[in-house]
Specification:
Chain A is mostly beta strands. Helix content of chain A is 0%, strand content 57%. In chain A, a hairpin with a 6-residue loop joins strand 4 (31-37) and strand 5 (44-50). Chain B has strands at 3-7, 10-14, 19-26, 30-38, 45-50, 56-59, 62-66, 70-75, 84-92, 100-101, 105-110. In chain B, strands 2, 4, 5, 9, 10 and 11 form a 6-stranded mixed β-sheet that branches. The radius of gyration of chain B is 13 Å and the shape is globular. The chains are: A mainly beta (112), B mainly beta (111).
Chain lengths: 112, 111
């Protein structure tokens, strides 16, 4: 594997389900990011981890819970989501904060 | 307030018809401006970083330029495979992690 990988690529869940998104970066980077991308809207930064420590949390609802066990892996735990949470969730990494960010392919999430 | 505006929202060109995409920005101090390409159903792919006014970078048919207020992505003799959404983002000097993103320009190149 190279670059940034994300699983699953597609996810359909009900409002009462619990699921997790996984991101892994193979670039030796120290910072990892979760973004939400909705149609025709700018990317929304959700969380940032630098050296496994959370440094940004952009007022994201508590139904989204991030986890970063090491510099290579990032998870986004989802529970009791709303239909408006349907979007493309992108993971990115960079060498450090402020450096160029490299993105994974995203997880297309549909909440029914 | 820091913000990024991209125009046009969508652009349709014939193959070989050169044009430019615009990214206007307002930021307290610019650390860097980034251009990405995004294909449908995929994550953004990094193209260029520009740091100071007057800087230019090229890659194949793409050339990015930067002034103190805006950046242009010039596309010369485009091919259908250049069709994608092009995203612009800026980073302010007082921000370690936050990028301010534009909504993108959807480029369609017809054969």
């Amino acid at each position: 594997e190279t670059g940034v990988t994300q699983t699953p690529r597609h996810l359909v869940m009900g409002m009462t389900n619990k699921k997790s998104l996984k991101c892994e970066q193979h670039l030796g980077h120290n910072a990892m990011y979760w973004y939400k991308q909705s149609a025709k809207k700018p990317l929304e930064l959700m969380f940032v981890y630098n050296f496994k420590e959370q440094t940004e949390n952009n007022s994201v609802p508590s139904r989204f819970s991030p986890e970063c066990p090491n510099s290579s892996h990032l998870f986004l735990h989802l529970h009791t989501l709303q239909p408006e949470d349907s979007a493309l969730y992108l993971c990115a990494s960079s060498q450090t904060g402020g450096e160029t960010q490299y993105f994974g392919p995203g997880t297309r999430l549909l909440v029914l | 307030e820091d913000q990024v505006t991209q125009s046009p929202e969508a652009l349709r060109l014939q193959e070989g018809e050169s044009s430019s995409l615009n990214c206007s920005y307002t930021v307290s101090g610019l650390r860097g401006l980034f251009w990405y390409r995004q294909d449908p159903g995929k994550g953004p792919e990094f193209l260029f970083t520009l740091y100071s006014a007057g800087e230019e970078k090229e890659k194949e048919r793409l050339k990015a330029t930067l002034t103190k207020k805006e950046s242009f992505l010039h596309i010369t003799a485009p091919k259908p495979e250049d069709s994608a959404t092009y995203l612009c983002a800026v980073q302010a000097v007082d921000s370690n992690y936050q990028l301010i993103w534009g909504a993108g320009t959807k480029l369609i190149i017809k054969p």
